Every structure is written in C-alpha cells, then in structure tokens.
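Bug #77: duplicate submission created two jobs. Keeping one. Sequence:
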Amino acid sequence: KYPPRPLATIHGLDSRSAETTTTGYRTPRRKQSPAADPARRYPVTPVGSNPPQDHWVLDQMRSLDPGNGNPRPRPADVMVLDAPGGGYADFAWMPDSGSVCVASIYPTAKDPAPSSTVMCTAVPAMARGGGQNMFGPRNVGGDDQRGLDWFAIVAGSNGPLTLKDGIPGHLGPLHQRTAKAANGVVYTIAEYYFGGGPVFPGPVVGFSEPQLCTASGSLCRNALGTYTYPGP
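Kept job's structure:
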C-alpha cells in the first residue's frame, strides 16, 4: 500500500542531501555560505610580504617545530608581526582556513640558539550572515622583557583592528597582518604586549578595561582576555 522508504532515509540520512527528522519526513535544508562552514578548509595566502629586514626571522623558523602534529610553515606562509631586533620576533601562519599558529622567538643567556613559544589553535568561522567573528584575545605564553604576549584573530575582517583605552605605556603597540583564504574570507591577526616587563609595575591611576575592536567598532573584546588585574 505504501512504497518503501529509501534505506538512507530510514537511518536518518537522505541520499538527496536533505535534512530529515526521525520519522523520515524531509525538512528544508538551510543554505549556508561556504565561508561560514567550519568543516571546510581552504588554502590561505598572506596579504603583502615581509620586508627585507625581517628575513632573518624566516631563517630562524626553518628549524621551528610547531608540535602536536602541526605542519612546519613554509617561508612564503609566514607573516612577521614584530621583529624589534636583538633576536626577538613574533610571527604567525595559517596552515589552512581552519587553523592559525602564532610563535615567538627570543634569545636566552644559557643557549646561543633562540628559544621559542608556539601556539596553534582553531580559527573561528565567519558569523552567519557574513558578520565578523573573533578568537581571543589570548595569552600566547610568551613572557619576556617586553611583557605578556597577547594574540587574537578576526574572521571576516574588513579593516585594521584598534586598541582602545587601557593603561597608557603598558599595553601595545598593536601589530597586525592580514591573510586571505581561497574562498574569499579575510583574516586579521593581531599581536601586542602588556606589562612592559615580566612583573606588572603595579596599580595605575585611571585604569580602564582595554578593548580590542574591529575597524567599525561593532565587535570588541577585552584586550586582556581573562587576565586578572593585580590589586594594591
């Protein structure tokens, strides 16, 4: 009397690529832009190139091991964020549109070879409707004479990020680079330091919670993430 249902539908799947309920009735598929699909990964290319004075960083990172099975970056994929000299440098690369790695290298008194700190993490997909999405800010783990190293990445970026308010003289400067995925999504990677030294100098009059914001100001996050400000 009733035609048999397709086997794929009986198991909750439909061979016609439509979502189904447990009763087997088809429900409309919600269209989603490939840019907002975190399961799809695309090649990513840095926008712009590293200046000649920063090429020494590329030589240093050839021996860098990102760990945890993360691929070693190609020199063409590396985006130097800051290289103030003296053996210090911060840089980033995106293995694909679903991941980003941020690294710092710095000299040590005991070893002529530079030490390094590397953090690799997942990248947020664009918000539904084409809006922006931010991961972080997050402490990378670096803690040297420049202070605590902080990082954030924005998917769907449409301009430079800005640091607002905070503690003058103890936050920043803000360094950032842009990369573009093959599906057209633009990413902005930001990095900055807080503290001006391994130990925060103490309470500051006029302290206000610093914000890392997109160009439009429509998306802001606490620039120090979960950092707890030490009281008097």
